[in-house]
Amino acid sequence: MNTLVKTLKKYQQDGVDRIVSQTNTLIADEPGLGKTIQVLAYIDQNNVNKTLIVCPSSLKLNWENEIGEWIKTKKLNINVISKGTDTLKDDDNIIIVSYNLVGTIKGLNSLYFDLLVCDESHYLRSPKAKRSKIILGLHGLYKQAKKVVCLTGTPLTIDP
């Protein structure tokens, strides 16, 4: 059921449809085109009960604000993790955590998610980095999710 308070642009709905049809999705639209909105529309339009959003610390409140702005008619319990000692609750629908804290949250590795979102997913480009192993490694969080969506405005970087 669609409870979004705003209307998506066609390319945004195309992105939502891509999430629906694929298990793993990369959305690499340019900054400002609404990658976050596509994820929120997917959550809203589908039976998504538990979502883990991993993002840079500076974007956690942005995610919380966007959820509140776009999905006003559906009751969602949002847990924004601010420190490693924060606790998870059974009724959390959306858990928002930074890349720096994702490996410190007790009980996170025993949960299953309808959706795992990796915002600014270029943070995971180094397979040897601790955060990459926590999310994408052999026993990574991605294995606990039905769907994984990676968002980035900079999918390719050139290092010397």
Which characteristics define this entry?
4 helices, Rossmann fold, alpha/beta, 160 residues, 6 strands, 6-stranded parallel beta sheet, single chain
Task: Explain the overall architecture.
Pfam families: SNF2-rel_dom. This is DEAD/DEAH box helicase family protein. One of its GO terms (molecular function) is helicase activity. The termini are far apart. This protein is globular. Helix 2 packs across helix 3 (60-70). By secondary structure, the protein is an alpha/beta fold. The chain has a 6-stranded parallel sheet, covered by helices on one side. The protein has 4 helices and 6 strands. It has a single domain (15-151), classed as Tandem AAA-ATPase domain (Rossmann fold). The mean pLDDT is 92.
Give a brief rundown of this model:
The protein has helices spanning 10-21, 35-45, 60-70, 130-136, and strands spanning 24-27, 51-55, 78-80, 94-98, 113-119, 145-151. It is α/β, with parallel strands linked by helices and 160 residues long.
